[in-house]
Amino acid sequence: xxxxxxxxxxxSEFRVGLTPESAESLIAKGHEVIVQQNAGIEIxxxxxxxxxxxxxxxxxxxxxxxxxxxxVKVKEPQPAEIRMLKAEQILFTYLHLAPDFSQTQGLxxxxxxxxxxxxxxGAEGGxxxxxxxxxxxxxxxxxxxxxxxxxxxGGRGTLLGGVDGVAPAKVTIIGGGVxxxxxxxxxxxxxxxxxxxxxxxxxxxxxxxxxxxxxxAVHSTEEILEEHVLRSDLVIGAVLIPGAAAPxxxxxxxxxxxxxxxxxVDVAIDQGGCFETSRPxxxxxxxxxxxxxxxxxxxxMPGAVARTSTLALNxxxxxxxxxxxxxxxxxxxxxDPHLLNGLNVYAGRVTCQAVARDQGLDYxxxxxxxxx
Length: 372
Fold this sequence. Notes:
Layout: E1 2-5, H1 20-27, E2 32-36, H2 47-51, E3 56-58, H3 61-67, E4 70-72, H4 79-82, E5 90-93, H5 101-110, E6 113-116, H6 131-148, E7 170-174, H7 178-189, E8 193-198, H8 201-211, E9 216-219, H9 222-230, E10 234-237, H10 252-257, E11 263-266, E12 287-290, E13 293-296, H11 306-327, H12 329-335, H13 337-340, E14 343-346, E15 349-350, H14 353-359, H15 366-371
Parallel strand pairs: 1-2, 1-4, 2-3, 4-5, 5-6, 7-8, 7-10, 8-9, 10-11, 11-13
Antiparallel strand pairs: 6-14, 12-13, 14-15
Helix pairs in contact: 6-7, 11-12
């Protein structure tokens, strides 16, 4: 199979779909890998490192999209990239379609086979292709939040861990999944006073055991959430409903009552954000202020540590790329119900129920779409 790796064009995005090592493993199986010029140069993967393992370098994205049967990316295709997609061309990347109707419509119109990393499920539960980036984003959320709390950034001037005789900052994390747990690990390590809010009793028990009393794991209700948010220096939004738009858990009215200079970090912004006042930002302009509360809503947070993120993502994604390339997309999807869950758009039809529901579109089960 001809596998194309275009250079990412989203703002400040330096991750790359395949590393030279990943490309080498595919080439060893008889596949052709075509990489856009300088696709990984910012993170230490220059063109020669790809050529040395047998990959072909092409100068433009158009050449990649024209030649490849399978496109392996990191972030959702931008409008210029969507226009280059072809019928039955396989797109394997993060999509986050639920809050993005224009992208969904573009993929429908293209007739491509769009498989989203974030909705591929694991045999033992979870979302294995979302997990590595959730780990990165969770940890980064605390770094970003701590920075935003500094006076020079407009924050309260609070040090997360405090010092002798001065109480640490209060951090509230909404959601106890992969993002929330990793955020809590970083916050606890810095000495903050950490509370995780979640509605799943089993998860709260697991978190209590994992942290051994170093965090407060609390069952979330509307009243409890408001109480903790209003007392927090830093709030991390870490909720996830796979494939669906994030619920708005902090209203504009609640933001208005928060402490001046406190910080909201919305890790759910890829799925539309979980704060009513959120809107996507970039690494170049990561924050904005609403009612004296700093909002950090960067839609590709792991791009800040692009080398670490690329290596972690490739570890998770490469086995699936091999399955698709070795067997063809149809057999790979039908043989693996967990990979099949990743199929979001196929031949002009929406095959992810959450996306169809959130956008008011017709839904076709993935297996039915492939069978027809």
